[in-house]
Amino acid sequence: MVSCLVELQELTVLTKHFCRHNKTPLSPSCPLLPCMHIIIWSTDRLTVGPPMITDTKPKAGIMKVNFFLFFLALTGFSLIGHSVLRVTKDTKPNSEMMKFLQNANTLLLVVAFVSLTGLIFLGYSSTSLRYKEKRFCLNLTKEHQENSNLQSPQGLSYKQPSVVGPDGKVVPVTPWLSPIVWEGTFDPLLIDSIYRQQNITIATTVFALGKYTQFLKDFLESAEQNYFVGFRVHYYLFTDQPEQVPEVKLGEERQLTVLKVPSSNRWQEITLRRMEKLEKLIESRLVNEADYVFSLDVDTKFYGRWGAESLGRLIGVIHPGYYQTAREQFPYERRPESQAFIPYAEGDYYYGGAVIGGLVKDVYEAAKTCREQLDIDAAKSIEAAWQEESHLNKYFLYNKPSKVLSPEYLWQDFKPHTNEVKIIRFSQVIKNYAAVRPNP
Ligand code: UDP
Ligand code: MN
C-alpha cells in the first residue's frame, strides 16, 4: 500500500512535469493517459496556490497529498469502527471493552474532523504556506517579464535608429537594447558551445510551390554546409510537388519532412499564406518537436556560417535594401485602411520577410497575429504593399525583436558588396521573376 502510494505520487509529479512542458511521455493511445489526467486534476485540487508550484517544488505537492490521504484513512477507520461497534453493541451492550472502543472511535472521529478543518484552513487561509509560494511565484513572474514581449506603444515619437554610424562603423545594438548581430560581435565557437549544451532542436520551414522547387537543391545543400552545423535541425518543407524534392544528404541528427500543400495561381497568395501554414504547423507539431523555429525563403543560398548567434526569443532580419534609408522612405504599407499601416513618422528598421525566427511560442504569436491581420485585410479586399512582409514590419515595430540580424543574414546576390557587410551568410539568388512566378 505504502509503496503503491509513493509510486502514485512520483508518477503524478513526473506526469505533471512532462505535461506542463508539452512533452507528454505517454503516447496518446496509452491506457494510462486518462488515469494520469484524473490524478493531475485531483492533485491540482489538493494543492495550495497555483498549480505551477507543484512543478518546481514537487515535495510541497507530495506533502499535501500525504495529508489528504491521512485524513481519508482516519475517516475510513472511524467509519469502519463505528459500524463494527453498532453490530457488537447489541450482543455485549455494557462491557468495559465496549466503552473503551466507543471512546477510541469518538476520538478518531474528532481527529478526522480536526484534520479536515486543518486541511480547509491550510488550503484557504494559511499565510505561511501562501507566503512561501507567493515569493516563489514572484521570482517566476520576474523571470517571465525579463523574457517576455518588448511591446511599444503606437504613435510614440523617437529618433530613427541607425544601422551604420556616421563613422561608417556598424551599430551593434538597437535603442531598446537588443543585439544587432554582425561579424565580430560574437565568438562562434563559444556561442555554439553554449547552445549545444542545451540540446535544442531548430525547426526550419521552407516553402517551394510551383516552379520554386528548382531552388531547393542549392538551398538544402548550402544549408547543410553552413546552417546550424552540429545542431539538430528539422526542415519542414511545404510543396505541391513532393516528387520534385531533390535527394540531399543530410548531416547527423538532421531531418527533412515533406508536407504536401495545394499551390495557388497567384504568387502573392502563396507568400502570404505562409504565415497561416507556419501558425498551423506550430500548433500541430512544433510545440512538441522543436525549441526554435526559423521560416526562410527558398530562393536563397547560404554562403557563410549561420549559427547559434542567431538564436533568441524573437528574431527579425534587417532588409539589405533599406538599412541606410530614412524611415519615411521605407516601403511600409501607407494606407490607413490596411492593418499593416505604419505612419511616416514611425519605424525602426525595414525588416525582410524572407527570415523570421525565434522561440516556437513567440514565432507562433507573430505568425498568428500577421495571419489575423492578413485575414482582416483580405475581407476588405486590401492587399498590403508587400503582403506578409508589410504585416511582419508592423508586428516588429510594436513587438520589438529580442535580437536583430544584420543584413549579413539576408543579402541579395545582385547587390554589390559594401564595406560594412564583411561577410555574406545568406542571400537571395537572382531569379527571373517572369519565369518562376505563376503570375506577373
Ligand atoms: N514561393 C513559392 N512559390 C511561388 C512564389 C513564392 O514557393 O510561386 C515562396 C518561396 O518560398 C519564396 C517565398 O514564397 O521564397 C517568397 O516569395 P519570393 O521569393 O518570390 O518573394 P521575394 O523574395 O522576391 O520578395
Ligand atoms: Mn525570395
Task: Describe the protein in words.
The protein has 3 domains: 2-56; 60-142; 162-436, Spore Coat Polysaccharide Biosynthesis Protein SpsA, Chain A (Alpha-Beta Complex), CATH 3.90.550. The longest helix is centred in the N-terminal third of the chain and has 34 residues, at 58-91. The protein has helices spanning 2-20, 32-46, 52-56, 58-91, 96-125, 127-147, 188-196, 216-226, 267-289, 360-379, 387-398, 433-436, and strands at residues 150-151, 180-181, 201-208, 232-239, 254-260, 292-296, 300-302, 314-318, 351-359, 399-400, 403-405, 411-412, 426-428. With 440 residues, the protein is of the alpha/beta class. It is elongated. The structure holds uridine-5'-diphosphate (UDP) and manganese (II) ion (MN). Uridine-5'-diphosphate (UDP) binds at residues 207-210, 212, 267, 270-271, 297-299, 354, 428, 437-438. It is a single-pass type II membrane protein. An alpha-L-fucosyl-(1->2)-beta-D-galactosyl derivative binds at residues 319, 389. Keywords: Glycosyltransferase, Manganese, Membrane, Metal-binding, Signal-anchor, Transferase, Transmembrane, Transmembrane helix. One of its GO terms (molecular function) is hexosyltransferase activity.
